[in-house]
Amino acid sequence: MDNLMQILAYGWLLILVLGIVFYKPILRVFFGMVIVPEDRIGLVTKKFVLYGPNKELPDGRIIATKGEAGFQARTLAPGLYWRMWPWQYGVELQPFTVIPHGKVGLILSKDGAEIPTGNILGRKVECDNFQDAGAFLANGGQKGRQTSIITAGTYRINTFAFDISIIDMTIIRENMVGIVTTLDGLPISAGQIAGKTVDGHNNFQDFDTFLELKGNRGLQPQIVLAGSYNINKWAVQIEEIPMTTVPIGHVGVVISFIGEDGTDVTGETFKHGNIVAKGFRGVWMEALGPGKYPINTYTMNVESVPTTNLVLNWANARSESHALDKNLSTITVRSRDGFPFNLDVAQIIHVPANEAPKVIARFGSMTNLVSQVLEPTIGNYFRNSAQDSDVISFLTTRKERQESAREHIRQVLEEYNVIAVDTLIGDIVPPEALMRTLTNRKIAEEEEKTYETQKLAQEKRQGMEKETAIADMQKEIVKAQQSVEIAQRTADAAVKKSEGEAASLKLQVNAESEATKMRASAESEATRLRAGAQADATKLNASAEAEKISKTGLAEAEKIMAIGKSTAEAYELQVRAMGGDNFTKFKITEELGKGKVKIIPDVLIGGNNGGSDGPISGLLGLKLMDMLDPDKKLSEESCVPATSTVEDHKNKN
Prior knowledge:
Layout: H1 2-21, H2 23-31, E1 34-36, E2 40-46, E3 63-64, E4 70-76, E5 79-81, E6 89-95, E7 97-99, E8 103-109, H3 133-138, E9 144-150, E10 153-155, E11 162-168, E12 170-172, E13 176-182, H4 207-212, E14 218-224, E15 227-229, E16 236-242, E17 244-246, E18 250-256, E19 275-276, E20 282-284, E21 291-293, E22 300-306, E23 310-314, E24 331-334, E25 340-350, H5 356-363, H6 366-387, H7 391-396, H8 398-414, E26 419-429, H9 432-508, H10 510-540, H11 542-578, H12 580-595, H13 614-628, H14 646-652
Parallel strand pairs: 3-4, 19-20
Antiparallel strand pairs: 1-5, 2-4, 2-6, 7-10, 8-9, 8-11, 12-15, 13-14, 13-16, 17-21, 18-20, 18-22, 23-25, 24-25, 25-26
């Protein structure tokens, strides 16, 4: 009995455990219970209908809205549902549809009305953001891609009826613009390349409003600025391009390809283009200043025109940064004498800001202005100018030709609303053969100048050497002059000395004063003559020396004569004073005393007068005296010659 009770207890326990584990299937089978969690949605499929008018879906429909068998439009929200018998209803639980931040959801309807011909998108109907498939179908929703989108959020969408494609939002970056092309709408009007402007669609985010306002499919005149946009990319395509920049020193001339035809605002004077007011098709009279502009470059073109001085180079090796002269090259011309040669030309032009639209209306672009006007005008001018001159003349008259070209080109460009600032002729490259000839000629001319310079240098060198020699001799000349001056001063000093001595002698002896005076005068004159002779001898070398000797001899003669005359006069005065005999005796006695002449000899050698050896004895005696004193001789000066002078007597004494 106890064992039976234990078995029953375990049996009830097993039934309880199995019931707890399998209660949902059990409730599902016996009561048709379905539990939809809070983060799920229940998609219902009805397997069959036993009776009633709506047993089958109409043709072309896949979603049941009236209880037909098949995918049901009504979904099961989170909660508890009964009588959903498993043999009649299939319930599929799936997560909610979540659109993350920065994304948008594109809707593709699997069921609905047919899209009208010409349309590619289903129009918007009220259906609670596609969460009510029944309302979508009941309100005439169309199958296929929808114009409406769902933005970031969580949605209970019946995926039996709709497919959701999650894509990125459209982002336009800074300094960029979005060029819009719509894929649905009315056709563009004839003669236009873009649709008409439609407002109120919030930058194409409300595409249904765009369609309601009869927007056109295709290129749109409106653009999208920087920002993030919820754009249906099945309806709108956006191309991101940079903003249009007009640099400093330029203006932007707008050429509009869309809009109504406007009236030409230039009047009858301008016949080269259609310049209209802003907003019309054509070249706008109002140009854009420096800055950045959100321009739709598919519907408008902005031609940048420099308003500063513009340099264009006709040179192979040089081109400016604006590149308008990249196709220009060195101009080849032919002279009158048949020589071809090259020359580089630079043209400076200026386009006023108010004239820029006219230039663009006439030529279309600055490149066309250069190629259609400047290039042929300048090239032809210099070719024609070169034909009137030979190469050498062209080179030598470069300045005049440059001024003539400036004036000619200025007049031509004024007709095209362009100011010619200056025309400059650059490098001129004559023919090589001619340059060789000119070079040889120039070398010869320079050599001639070199030789002339060298000749002048040699002449200057000769002059310098001559001056150097003169300068070197100058010290000798100065020395000679100084010697002459010294001699002159010495002579003057001697004269003064002689004059003093003469005066002294004159005071001492009246008799000798006259003689002294005459002697001093003679000596002074002789000294003067001797000094002059010495100076002349120094200056005139050998000739001066001869002259000196001559002067000296003459002076000596005069001196001797003066001394003799003085002596004679002195003697004459003494004779007058003493008498002739007395003076004679006096002078003899004076001379004997001066000469120390012995009247009586120290040794008297005598001989026997009567003997035969008398004279011989005397000679022997004299010889004996000489042998005893060989140094003792008879004075040769005992007698004064008749031609001796007073000076000789003084020296001997």
